[in-house]
Amino acid sequence: MAILVTGGAGYIGSHTCVELLDAGYEVIVVDNLSNSKEESLKRVREITGKPVKFYKADLLDRQAVNEIFKNEPIEAVMHFAGLKAVAESVSMPLRYYHNNITGTLTLLYVMQLHNVKKIVFSSSATVYGNPHTVPITEDFPLSAVNPYGQSKLIIERILSDLYNSEPGWNIAILRYFNPTGAHPSGRIGEDPNRIPNNLFPYITQVAVGKLKVLNVYGSDYDTPDGTGIRDYIHVVDLAAGHIKALQKLNENPGIVVYNLGTGRGYSVLEVVNTFSKVTGINIPFRFAERRPGDIATSFADPSKAKNELGWTAKYGLDEMCADAWRWQQNNPDGYK
Known about the structure:
Blueprint: E1 2-6, H1 11-22, E2 26-31, H2 39-48, E3 53-56, H3 62-71, E4 74-79, H4 86-91, H5 93-113, E5 118-124, H6 147-165, E6 170-176, E7 178-180, H7 199-207, E8 214-217, E9 229-230, E10 232-234, H8 235-249, E11 255-260, E12 266-267, H9 268-279, E13 285-288, E14 297-298, H10 303-309, H11 317-330
Parallel strand pairs: 1-2, 1-4, 2-3, 4-5, 5-6, 6-11, 7-10, 8-13, 9-14
Antiparallel strand pairs: 9-12
């Protein structure tokens, strides 16, 4: 079974390619390399010993996407491609809406044209906005508080409308929380452009000496230590969840939605302290102003994914820290 992975050279996409290949799927990747490196796919081949077909193309280029579907026996799509930095989306909303939504529309048009009607969509816990309570279940009200989250929410609604108009579609929407860690081999991991937007690569770049100090954005949240609490999930667990969702689509479930998280929240300072404990490296930090669009606390209730997909997160915070550090140690400059 051939799977098209959009954004497959990126952080989550590359780890999912490993899981797909190990599960016996054929993998075709399309990526414009705007925030990723083709080197990641070379390493995916190295880890799995299996081929990956790669097309450098942008989802905004409908002709290029159509050519891929004409050339390849694609049976389902995993859709990761998109801009993803919350703070950047606040300052560049038009870019985020155009790239994420128009790119998805192009993809769906071409899928429709070629009668490919199975898609796993990479959504985000940001679609829950600022939840009144935690843990968060899939039936919580949806209300994104930044353009990145809004773009994900709009795409979810597009997918819902598409299914309602054409029930032949089978769609899995995966709302995941805070992916982190790296493949245990240390060969693939998160390689952000410029200053990292996410906590873990920021910590590891301080640990390896690329950055001098960690900025902790916000010290006055309504949390036990004043710093934001998030549900961190190992990227390998997350990738495994995508395989389970793909298998679910073979049961013709229609449209289904799942949270992928551990069900446990950690504050920024808890993560910093755990990283220091696991690695023996002290991480200097300083408090900075809150970032626009951030919220105090967010963690999942992942029981629906456990009950319907047979999926649970296997890795804890210690493993996330150890694997993230192994990747950074082995690749101090990322894929360069």
